Amino acid sequence: MSLLIILLVPLLLAAWLYLWRRRVAPRIAVSMAVSSASLPYGRHTDLTVRLINPARLPAPHVVCTFVLPDGLQLVPPGHPDEDDARMRKCRVALGLGPRQETDATFRVYGCRRGRQAVTKCSLVLGDGLTSREIAATRETSVEVVVHPRLLSESRSVAIAQQRFGTSSMRRKLYATSLDWINIRAYQPGDAFRDIAWPLTARRGELVVLERAPSIERRVVFLLNAQISETHWRHNSAPVNRIYEEALAAAVRLMSEYTHLTVHTNAVWRRRTKGQRYPAIEFCGLGQAQVARQLGHWLGGLSTYAETGFVRAVERVGGLLAQPCEVVVFTAYEDEPLQNAYARLRRRGHHVSVLAVSAGNGSGTREAGDVP
Question: What pTM does this model have?
């Protein structure tokens, strides 16, 4: 009997190793899912890894490892260990029974704007009886869009208090009854182009004609992803700063404007298969909704420019049928851009330029001022 057992053990071990290599190890599958695919900067979402053993035999030892992309990490931004590479490495080690599925959940934080994707993971499979292991790679498909970083409250207020649209325009230097519907006394901060000069001369005091809501409460943002006239290569710092400033300004200005449209020349998704001239529009939404929807949209933009900004400005100018406030977020300016702004102003629009740098400083000026 003992001799039979001694002979059977190697046979059983060889049979198990054969079945494990042919029937179990190749069939171990991995899938991933997130609780929220749209993630504000600094917030967290749950990343669930599901290990699946569809075979009728067990998988005694399964180790799944994967590395989070640069925009995701296991600790919130500002944590002392956020620069540690181990904060982006996830590992699951367990055993799977026959036809068993097991989930492991990781809490990940958004730390960099953009589309963050986990496309593959590594598996190390052991038979449970010997020290032999099989290394394999599994393709996965999970993506999280991280919103731009939220600026501080003081910085956000400073951007919104730039008072876009306070200067007179070359066209429509005075208010007319065709575009304005109400009369009231002048208040500090009103645009000079809204003053009804004939009534002011007649009454002896400044009188303002209020605009119709379709004209007054409309603002258009133009975001420039081209950081210089000839620079088309990837440079994320200035462009990311533009997205942050635009998000802060939009959230603040939606308390005064009810209609906001954002245009850009950046590439949507990938550079080669992108959508030209992406745009998003908001009407009658609250600040929280704008922050969530615009943050997700800005998070999906690339830092590459699809086309020159002059062409993008001219195209947007052709789409605007009524005079409105146009706010430009750009990291550079030159004479062609100044000419494009002048053409917008001649069509009745008011153009303000918010010059953005990679640092914390930015300034707003009128489009006709000297840079």
Answer: 0.78
